[in-house]
Each structure stands twice: as structure tokens, then as C-alpha cells.
Design goal:
By secondary structure, this protein is an alpha+beta fold. The protein has a domain of 144 residues. It is built from seven helices and 37 strands. Strand 6 and strand 7 form a beta hairpin.
Length: 609
């Protein structure tokens, strides 16, 4: 017979232990998903994020990795979320809709500098991280797993992007992030120069002066008269460690990645000033603005930021400019008066590429040649200098960030154009194709200029994939033959260009400066972590003037044996990708925030600003 338990009359029956206030019992809590996979996914993603961030890598590969890794990470999480049996179908749908809706709303109401790249490569990983953190907190802290907490995690992740603006990415794919309500460099510039956004076009006070003419000491086009980054006929002080170049003037400018040209007492460049894309003329001695021309258009994207990309060209008393959206201007160099204007998109039937139209106009005889891209076989275009009338079009790939260049190859003057389909040479008078070579890389951001080596050889970056190639161009009657000499991965320029001196190329292998022997294609040395900067050659003294990505200027010998630095100084603040200029014994520099002039010759005097 079973023993009966005797319960005292004054005792209450045993009751199950109740959870303390604020807790949920294990029996009453719904089954939550296991977090082993998403936690491992988070650990791998963020570990790789910080490791890859510090690796020296090609810029384009880093850009693709940032996009692809974030998307793969998000897809893996969504796959786990959808196929996890512990999550009810209603919650699966609600969570998916909430994350997607958060992304859409953020994209609609965020600052314009926060684009699809930021949303996908930063927003998605943040949203997934916050969601997993919330589920982990629910499991470990016995917090009631209400829908409000899940929604708050998603809102907090996407909401963070509503509170910031960025100034684009540097070459290491890092961005400077500021609060959305803090003014940008462009806004500060416009606030300090309210008249600059609407300055009238016209001659400076005092009437017209002598018409401008280029001299041997001028810098009338992108990377100099021959587009090779070589300064001739100029000698500079080299003892920078004792006496660095004096600053003559310095002031803020509107954003752009355009370089400068210098003719006579004028400096010309392009800037974005609010809704206006401008061409601006400054006095070379003082930095004071002489005139400004405006076009109502604005180009902006999240990697490089706002503003035009191409550099003005001076010829025949006029300044020719191409804006990032395709506005081709011919302006009187003295007064800024508009001679004619063409939207090249109407003729190329193209549209600005991902990072904007970057072709600096080329003047050959009575033609001004520019690159417009597109898929209709009219990507290279020539217009009449005097009227803007379209003269010819020619097929030259679909996309390019390089500029047309006139070069005499094998005794024949020809216009070279480097693009995503390779390197094309055409007759500058008619646009007839002479020859074409190189690996087709549809959409590839090819940026550099070809360099003539001797009478018939060309050194070209990324012609046959990452690296530099040397090709031989030969003519037999009306036929042309292009033969490879070598291809080397020892010098891999991206958007920086290189210079050639005494049979060697000096330039940037990624973010590190190096020297490449052009006879063998072998690297002589690699040294100098300058980021993606720029370089020009002072030929008379065998010197290299290098600008770093952070705004330093470095003077070093063009020596194939070793890198020999002669001095350096901090010339600008901020990300500096623009090409430097040396003209009339002075160094002119600019980036997206400021512009400066330094004296390079003995006895340079500081101007009163």
C-alpha cells in the first residue's frame, strides 16, 4: 500500500516556484534560435573587415571586396533566418520586411553623401549585427523577446546612417564621417565667400590687359604641354630640409578633382559651388579670384564626393573645360566670356560614368577632342575650336577616366585614347582609327596616360591587366602592327600617373612609390608610403616632386639605384588626389578643400593675401 503524505492543516499545498519579477520562466519563454552560426558569421566578417582594412591592396579590388563581402554576409544571415525552424514564419516575414523597409527609408532620407555603397557595405552589416546582438541579449538576460526590441535594434542600426554625412573614401577605402548637421568643407567655403557662388562674369577692374599667350614656362594643359608630367626649363632650390619653399598664398576652394593650368598671370581650375559647376580664374601672384563662369549642374557620388574631374586646357586665347556631367565650355581666357557651349552627351548618346566624365580637352589644330563614352560607337568626339560644331566621332570603348593625347608614334602624329576596351589611336583630323590594342575590360576604370618611349614604343598601365606594359608600334604602308615587348606587375598604377626619366618609370605601385626599369620591366626599388598621390618630373635637375594623398610635398632624386629624399613639407590639409603643377618657378596645388602656391626658385617672396 502506497505511503500517503500527511499535510498539516495549517500548511498550503506545494506550489511551483514562480519567476521573479521581470523574468520569464523557461517553460513560458518561446523557443529562440540558436546563435552559433550568426555569431560565427559576425566574428569572421568583422575580423576580416579590420584585417583587410590594413592590407595594401589595389583600390578597385578593395572597392569590390567591400561591396561583395557585405552582401555575402547579409545573404548568409538572411538564409539562416529564413530556414531556421525556431523562428515562426510570421516573425521571419516581419523581420525581413523591417530590415528592407529600414534600408529603403534610410536611402530616401539620408544625406546625399550616404549612397548605395554606404547602405550596402555599412548599413546591412550594422543591421544584422544589431539584430543578432538583440537575440543574444534576450537569450542570456531573460528579457522578454518582444517585437519592439527587435524593431528598435533595426531602427538604431539604420538610424545611425541618418545622422551622418561623409566626404567620400580615401585610397584605403576609409571615410571621414561627420554629424549630418555639421557643415561640409564646401558649405564652409560658400559661407565665407557668399559672392563667389554668384560672381558675375567679366573682366577684372582696370580694363582688359594684353591677351594671354602660353610661354615655355606655362602649364597650359593637363599634366603639362605634352601630358607627360614633365617640367622643362625650370631649376628649383633643393635644400628643403633647411629652407622649405615659402607659402605665397593659400585659400579655400570649392570641391573638385580637377588640376590647374597656369598661363601668364592667371591660374584656371574647375570647382563645384553648390548647384553651380564653375570654371574659375585666379591671379597667380595673389590667389585673388579674377572671374568665374557657372553652369547649373552638379555631379556627386559617394566615393569621391562632388565636383568636376577634368582639368582645363588653354589654347588660342581660350580656356576649354569639360564638366563631370558633360558640359563642354569654350571661354575667353581674359574675361571668362562664353564663346560656345555643348552638352557632349547629346552627341555621344552616352551618360556620365560612375565617377563622372574626366576627360581633359585636347586641342589639335582647329579641333578640340574630348571623351564622352557610351555604347553607340561615338565615344571620342572632336569639335571646332571656333564654333563648337561637331567635326567627327570615333569608337573608343565605352568608359574611360583618361584623357586624349597627341603623340607622334612611328613618325605619324596621332591621337591616343585609353579606355576600357584598350588603347586606340586615331587620325586627329578625321577620327579614322589607325590601330587598337589591349585587353578588353568592360567598365574598367582606366585612368592613366600612355607614355612615349623612344620613337615607337609606348608604356601603358593596366593595358593587359594589373601592371604596366611596353608595346612596339610599327607602320607598314597603311597597315599598323602592335607587338608586346613585356608586361610587368612590378608597377601597378591606379588613378595616379607615372613619369619617365633616363629609361626608368617612377610612380605608385598601389600606395607605395617605386622605380621600374623600362628596358626589362623589372622593379629597381620600392619605398615611400605616400598613399595614392601624384608625381611630376623636374627634368633639368633630375628631380621628382611627389604629392602624398595627405597633402605632403616630397622632393626626391630621380635615381634608379635608391629612393633619395631631399626634403618634404605639409602643403595642404585633407585628401589630395589632384595633380600638382610647376609653372613660372612656382608650385601650385589644390585638393577638394583648398588651393595654395609655393615659391620654388631662390628669393621667392611671400605675397600679402
Amino acid at each position: 500500500m502506497a505511503k500517503r503524505e500527511i499535510i498539516p492543516m495549517n500548511a498550503e499545498p506545494h506550489a511551483k516556484e514562480l519567476p521573479s519579477e521581470g523574468q520569464v520562466s523557461a517553460a513560458s519563454r518561446p523557443c529562440l534560435p540558436r546563435l552559433g552560426f550568426p555569431l560565427g558569421l559576425l566574428l569572421v566578417y568583422w575580423a576580416l573587415y579590420f584585417v583587410v582594412d590594413h592590407l595594401e591592396k589595389p583600390y578597385f579590388y578593395g572597392f569590390i571586396y567591400g561591396m561583395a563581402s557585405a552582401l555575402v554576409f547579409a545573404l548568409c544571415f538572411l538564409g539562416w533566418w529564413w530556414f531556421n525552424r525556431a523562428v515562426p514564419l510570421v516573425q521571419k516575414l516581419a523581420g525581413f520586411v523591417l530590415i528592407v523597409a529600414g534600408a529603403w527609408l534610410t536611402g530616401k532620407f539620408c544625406d546625399r553623401s550616404v549612397n548605395i555603397l554606404t547602405l550596402s557595405s555599412v548599413g546591412l552589416p550594422l543591421a544584422v549585427t544589431f539584430v543578432v546582438a538583440w537575440i543574444f541579449l534576450v537569450k542570456k538576460a531573460f528579457i522578454p523577446p518582444n517585437r519592439i526590441g527587435f524593431a528598435a535594434a533595426v531602427v538604431l542600426a539604420w538610424g545611425a546612417l541618418l545622422c551622418v554625412h561623409t566626404d567620400g573614401l580615401d585610397s584605403a577605402l576609409k571615410s571621414h564621417v561627420s554629424w549630418r548637421w555639421s557643415p561640409t568643407a564646401e558649405q564652409r567655403f560658400l559661407a565665407q565667400n557668399p559672392a563667389s557662388a554668384g560672381s558675375p562674369v567679366g573682366a577684372p577692374p582696370g580694363g582688359a590687359s594684353t591677351p594671354l599667350q602660353a610661354t615655355p614656362s606655362s602649364w597650359p594643359a593637363f599634366r603639362g604641354p605634352d601630358r607627360d608630367g614633365v617640367v622643362r626649363g625650370t631649376k628649383v632650390v633643393t635644400d628643403w630640409k633647411t629652407v622649405p619653399p615659402p607659402q605665397l598664398w593659400r585659400h579655400a576652394v570649392g570641391p573638385a578633382w580637377s588640376s590647374l593650368i597656369v598661363v601668364g598671370d592667371r591660374v584656371f581650375t574647375q570647382e563645384q559651388r553648390g548647384p553651380m559647376e564653375t570654371v574659375v580664374c585666379y591671379d597667380s601672384a595673389t590667389g585673388h579670384q579674377r572671374w568665374v563662369h557657372e553652369d547649373t549642374t552638379r555631379f556627386e557620388e559617394g566615393v569621391s564626393g562632388p565636383g568636376p574631374r577634368a582639368t582645363p586646357t588653354f589654347a588660342q586665347g581660350c580656356v576649354f573645360t569639360l564638366g563631370a556631367t558633360g558640359m563642354l565650355n569654350c571661354l575667353d581666357a581674359q574675361t571668362g566670356e562664353l564663346r560656345w557651349l555643348r552638352d557632349i552627351n547629346n552627341d555621344s548618346h552616352g551618360r556620365p560614368p560612375l565617377w563622372g566624365l574626366s576627360s581633359s580637352p585636347l586641342i589639335v589644330g582647329q579641333n578640340v577632342i574630348v571623351y564622352g563614352g557610351g555604347q553607340t560607337g561615338k565615344s571620342l568626339l572632336a569639335y571646332r575650336v571656333d564654333s563648337g560644331e561637331l567635326v567627327w566621332t570615333a569608337p573608343a570603348g565605352e568608359n574611360s577616366y583618361s584623357s586624349p593625347q597627341i603623340t607622334t608614334v612611328a613618325g605619324v602624329p596621332q591621337c591616343l585614347m585609353y579606355h576600357d576596351f584598350g588603347l586606340t589611336a586615331v587620325d586627329p583630323a578625321t577620327g579614322k582609327k589607325l590601330w587598337e590594342t589591349g585587353l578588353v575590360m568592360r567598365g574598367a576604370p582606366r585612368c592613366s596616360q600612355p607614355h612615349l618611349i623612344g620613337a615607337s614604343r609606348l608604356a601603358v598601365a593596366t593595358l593587359n591587366g594589373p601592371g604596366t606594359s611596353l608595346i612596339e608600334v610599327a607602320r607598314d604602308g597603311d597597315q599598323w602592327k602592335v607587338s608586346p615587348v613585356w608586361a610587368s606587375k612590378d608597377l601597378k598604377p591606379e588613378f595616379p600617373d607615372f613619369v619617365v626619366h633616363n629609361g626608368d618609370a617612377y610612380g605608385f605601385d598601389g600606395g607605395i612609390f617605386c622605380c621600374l626599369n623600362l628596358e626589362t620591366g623589372k622593379r629597381a626599388w620600392k619605398d615611400g608610403h605616400f598613399g595614392r598621390g601624384q608625381v611630376i618630373l623636374l627634368e633639368d635637375q633630375g628631380l621628382l616632386l611627389v604629392t602624398s594623398e595627405t597633402g605632403e610635398v616630397i622632393l626626391q632624386a630621380a635615381d634608379a639605384q635608391d629612393r633619395k629624399e631631399l626634403g618634404r613639407f605639409q602643403a595642404l590639409n585633407g585628401k589630395t588626389w589632384n595633380h600638382p603643377v610647376v609653372a613660372n618657378g612656382r608650385l601650385f596645388l589644390r585638393n577638394a578643400e583648398e588651393m595654395a602656391c609655393y615659391g620654388l626658385e631662390p628669393g621667392a617672396q611671400v605675397s600679402i593675401r
